[in-house]
Amino acid sequence: MAESRDYLEMTFRSINCFSNDGKLDASELGAIFDIAKRDGVVDQNEIRVLRNIISKVKPHEIDAAMLEKLNEIKNEIGL
To answer: The pTM is what?
Structure first.
C-alpha cells in the first residue's frame, strides 16, 4: 500500500488558512483534521503536521470553539 500524502494537503490547507487572515479558526482546523481522518487512519506524518499547525495557534486566539476542537483532536489521537 502506498504511503498517504494527505499530510501534504493538510500543510497546504493550513498555509492558506493562516495566510487568509493570519490565524486559524476552529472550522479551518476541523477541515484540516478531516483530511487526516478521511482514510480511517491518522498516521505519524499527519500527527506531526497537526502538532506543527496547532503550535502556531496563539493562546489569545483560542476561543471556546477552538478549545473544543483542540480537545476533540487530543481525545481522538492523543496530541
So the answer is: 0.89
